[in-house]
Fold this protein.
Amino acid sequence: MDELIKRAKELLEAGTVKVVIGYENGSADKTRALFAIEPKDADKLIFDSRCVMNLATYITKAEVKGKGKMAITATLPVMRAIIQLASEFQVNDSNLLVLGITPESKMIEFKDLAEVEAFVHKYTIEIEAKYSEKLEKLDKMTPSERWSFWIEELSPCFKCYACRAACPMCYCHKCTVEFNQPQWIPVPSHDLGNLEWHMMRAIHLAGRCIDCDACYNACPLGIPLNLLTKRMLIDAKEHFGGYQPSIKADHLMSTYKPDDKDNFIM
Amino acid sequence: MKSDRRLVRKGSLEKLFEVLKGDNRQVYAPFSRNGRTSYRKIEKFSDIATDYIQTTQSSKEVSFPRTEKILDYSKNADGMSVKGIEPDQIPQIMLWGIRPCDAMGIGELSSIFNWDYKDEIYNNRLSKVTVLGFSCSKTDEYCFCTSVGGNPGNTEGSDILFTQLGGNGDYLAEILTEKGEKVIALSPELFEAAGDIEKEKFLADVPVKFSHKEIYGKLEKFFDSEEWVGQSLRCIGCGACAYVCPTCACFDIQDDSHGKLGSRVRCWDSCGFSLFTLHTSGHNPRNVQSARWRQRIMHKFSYMPERLSVYGCTGCGRCSRACPADMNILEHLTSIKEAAL
Amino acid sequence: MSKIGVFVCHCGENISATVDCARVAETSGKLDGVAYSVDYKYMCSDPGQSLIKSAIKEKGLTGVVVAACSPRMHEPTFRKACAEAGLNPYMCEMANLREHVSWVHEKGEATTEKAIDLVRILVEKVKYNQSLNAIKVPVTKTALVIGGGIAGIQASLDIANTGHKVILIEKDPSIGGHMSQLSETFPTLDCSQCILTPRMVEVAQHPNITLYSYAELESVEGFIGNFKVKIRRKSKSIDEKLCTGCGLCTTKCPVKKIPSEFNEGLGMRTAIYVPFPQAVPNKPVIDREHCTYYLKGKCRICEKVCPIQAIRFDQEDTIEEVEIGAIVLATGFSVKQPDFFPEYGYGKYPDVITGLQFERLASASGPTLGEIRRPSDGKVPQNIVFVACAGSRDEAKGIPYCSKICCMYIAKHAMLYQHKVHGGKSYVFYMDIRAGGKNYEEFVRRAIEEDGVNYVRGRVSRIYEKNGKLIVKGVDTLLGAMPVDIEADMVVLATAGVANSDAEALAQKLHVSYDAYKFFAEAHPKLKPVETNTAGIFLAGACQSPRDIPESVSMASGAAVKVACLFSQDELTRDPLIAVVNRMAPPVYSSCVGCFLCVSACPYQAIEKEEIKNRAGEVIKTLARVNPGLCQGCGTCVAFCRTKSIDLQGYTHEQMYTEVMALLNEY
Amino acid sequence: MTNNLYMPYQMKVERITYEAPGVKTFMLRFVNEDDQNKFDFRAGQFGEYSVYGVGESTFCIASSPTRKGYIECTFRQTGKVTNALSDCEEGSIIGFRGPYGNTFPLDEWKGKSLLFIAGGIALPPMRCVIWNALDLRDNFKDITIIYGARSTKDLVYKHELQDWGSRPDVKLITTVDPGGESPDWKGEIGFVPTIVEKVAPSSKDTIAIVCGPPVMIKYTFPVLAKLGFSDENIFTTLENRMKCGFGKCGRCNVGKVYVCKDGPVFTLAQLNKLPDEY
Amino acid sequence: MAEFEPKIVAFVCNWCTYAGADLTGTSRIKYASNVRIVRFPCTGRIDYMLLVKAFDEGADGIIVSGCHPNDCHYTSGNFHARRRWIMFRSLCDFIGIDIRRIKFSWVSAAEGAKWADIVNSTVAAIRELGPYEEYQKVAKKPVKEVING
């Protein structure tokens, strides 16, 4: 990605941005986030198919944000996250410049977030086939079987909150689990505590989750917790016409339509 | 005591497993699901995972469960009735298949729980654990036990250490403690006499990257280094590293109440969480991720050696493997070693 | 240190017949934190209330649970009693043992158990109750009325007559609105201008009313009692103070061919103009879009002829900032525009006109001085067709609603036609005749029976020109859908009444809700017809939906009373059961992360952004803040907030959580 | 289990004193007499107080070890546990475990003068030492107490302040922040550091014990230095968040120093060596 | 063994369903006594976590009820609530929580009889389903001790 390196250097040299967030080679065959602050740091920038971590999780972190204006290497999921974050007033044109990477691996620099939004809107969020299959399989189970499935799947969870930390939408300084008057979600990791934590997280992401799988990728225990948010995404599509991050439009869950479905209400 | 060396046929392992399972004993061994390996109670020998360099989670849960009741209470007409946990509620555990680094970690973890105040809950659990270690014949780029005082065939912390002699071979069993002898006594016929075996030949080669003493010396003056900020910038502040670590002992104490009845539990916590040290006043002594990352490294490589005379790292490399942001402790320690003061 | 009193009421035998009240009192008395419990025959009676009051004083109670009837019935009673005994009224809760227990269940163990449960739930809740104080909001006693039609005029006058200041803004050069365009009014056929003009003059002369004509709302901030409003006073290009309204300029202006808005394009006006002779204020404005000077930089004839040099070509718009306590929206409505009816040939055939145009033709002050002459050639039409529901009640046109006023004005039009054109034939195509209203039905009957208007029940499918005649193709459904073709000289369309084109923008400026047709939405269709969901903003007239004059006037008076009620207090007292965003010591300030999703969830626009600044004045955090003047306490934001940063006083997280815990566990 | 470190003593709340808005003092007696007989502590130590079903909270023992048979604690409502504690009544049972931490070295201070400087809610840790010293009054020379709060209503231990004020062997100076005085206020008006400077107590053979909010401490240390106090003779206490109280849970350390075990009492000389992590 | 008596928690809004239940009382319509009402100002205030808590603490069934669409005292609280319910209900179903145990209804202040019907039919349905043991098995062992199993 010579183009990316070149542009990152220019931006840093000109002082247009203070930090360029991108990917570099990491341990084993992994890649990791790079924070280029000096122009020479940009030489380490890479981009390839291994770069799946959602870098948008960094742009709300005080330590990164505090450096000054940021530029970010943004794949489609990252851009989606950025747009959702912008709609929640967490980033704006004055502190973020987006160096987009198209699904065809082409770099495009966006003038502003409105352009990013327009780009993002060219694509709809589609659930990958392998996940659709899993979801269908679950749908076919009886509720009791699903219950056993989830209790079993969530049982290894030790609440390290890697899912939360990796999620670009989980930027709250004090998460619901840390709210203790009352203690809505049990702090310890046990079947009930794990269940409630993941339920709560899924519903807080309803209409916000951009389906980047960052949570699943981050989970050290390989829990398929992204199935929960994918389910929410499917519901959003089924009931509310689908979800697409948008800077100005009302948030999917803080708005309503007078004719929302109510066949389940007696 | 000097170790007793025996030979266990490959085919005898399953028999040993069956023997160990009986009589109010539970066998905890590596189990794989979703591509991750962790320890859990195993009923069938075939459920034991074998294809792992290192388990995803450490085995510390046998003595330091992620969530553990420390007392029950009930309110009644006369006041309050409070009950602790009785030791006989804790079963005998056969901890099967842990790596030498983890076995070494048991001592490190114990030193925290016995620093002046003896944590009887922990000690009781540990006293019921028999450690059946398995030497390492494989390694990956995350391993660095040899840099922190361990090695792939280290006997420290194991009651019996098994070393497989070649890819599909029999096992050398080094019986290291009384607990280990008790295991032999359960089924002596499985433990044949071992001839002269050069164990080292069958062990993985883990290169030495630094010496922990070297790191200790460096850290003494490293508290205010800018290096912490650079290293921790990509840290996302989760607790994965702490929770997979065999020696991390940070915990929280929480109450669980249901009207009159309830219990108090101890559960894992992590120094990496941003609210870990937050005062109710809103003041936070470690208010940036770099301070929290520094705490993690300093605790293991500076504070523990100074205060407890042990290091808090076994070189198992789990934290690096588990990290969603690819924080690599080996790499970071190496750069601390090389950093200018 | 809770010391809670539990007071169990027998309600005569209403409760005690099925619930063992003594046992409820006894069991509750053993709960943690309950210092006193008692049962009594009638808690709401004077002796019952005294029992509570003396227990509060003697036992030093910190909370009270009255187990009696529905809180919807007596909560105010017991809260007042508590307050009288010196306990904060919000420390009192009621367990509903009558409507929810004794009246709906048989006598028995399970029924008493349920009663005990309900008391326990509220005992546990009360432990988390907080003393709350009524919220006081100061009131600026000046009203802003937007729109100078009959509704706005009436509202302004009514408010002004209660002694309060009113600012009336009108976007046109004169007040009067649609009513000033009308010829006669139904069902009395009195002259519209004759009854309206005195009111217009009264507005101009009223000491409490400030009239800004040719002015529009620029922006609104604040909330009930405390709005900060910016008004854009469009440049009239004249010095209003100097201008005497002599009208010389308007007669000399060389640009004379501008279709007059007042005459609905049936007459012409000049570029400097007064919209109609009775205009208030009766001073001209220069229409810069048509004025030669503004277009070409030359002319200035008006300036030359003005005897007192009142013309100001360089005048600019000014922004007036005013503080306002209440706002009445009276912006009226529009009629559907020509392109809407291609099948009726509106715009294509000059003799297909709207009802409003017909009003101008029929008006003595109109372009034909009251004679019905068709626009194309000025001939008096001998055959005239009126088409009702032109657009209205037509789902295909996107206007499924009834415009309400058309049936009546069509009858009036037809009647006026028959009165003015003797021997003329008039036809009305209609779907139904909707003449609900005092003397309305009689009025329509008169048109049909006395004036001989031909009413044809059916829709018109098409209008086209043939041999100089307008062919109106319709059907008569009363005759088995028999096709009816009428050769007309003129056709009048009763076009649908629709919201103003800028209604949506205005609603957004004011944060009032509007319906699917962009009419402003009332707060409650039955009980709050003149209120909006935004406290302190009221509705009058056709901006809410098409209205006739008496309705508009009634609404205006209704809205005026609401404003007067508001202004009768120096401070507004509000129930403190409202949402609050938590605040903490620096450096945290609040757990709110400022995502502002609550803003769109709030039905009352009560959530605003609050910026926390450091000493240098830099914004370091942006938080949500609930405006206590606007919040109504529904709690929608509370359930929505991910960080639990908003809580609802009286129904807090702790309180509701505790209720659920207490309900299902032993205590 | 024989020795469950986390098992609290059952304590009965015997007396509740309202000190200031949100601040209360509990007098706690051991439910089990055996516990009481075995229990011993020294000035400066702290404990974990718990409400069953809610959790534990850390604060110092505010009564003097010379007063046997009970302990007292003073707390301000700030969070979940202190709110729940505040809801307790006389007769309620709460949990207490401790004592933990180091102590003020009263033995070493024998024959010296003591200067106590406290602000706001930080008087409790010092109250323990003050009473301890007063109960062993002959061991010390002058005892001076300078105590300030934001306003008169925020002063805690009002009854004891009166008591100390009336004793001939104690010099008590109370102060409130400007604007915090009530009409009948007879004490000083001004911030604590200013008043210390004004009173100018002698540093000769004197130990200064300083507890208060960070800002007060920050500005008082230089004043004491100016008055000639050495860093070794200035004592204070630290309050980091902790869960266990005995060096395991991993929260309270300041660098290698554990506030729960090595503290909470530190001299300024010790503090100066600590990194900025408190 | 005594017949199973389901524990039902009802989360209702103050202005419609609570008032409707009052009307049931004033009309003296009898219904099953298994239900306990928790009063909220509006369905918009009802936090879905409270529903989960009710199951945690042993509820066998839940009723959530508020104003009919367009009748909300606060205009749109019930509309917001409905949107949340749609998602919440689907998530519960996906996780395997028995959604037959959560009944949603609109009961206006005039529908006293409907309230009695809702309660009775819910009680009957839950009685049929039996105690919610599947959930309780998980909830009542809050401290999963890895070793004590």
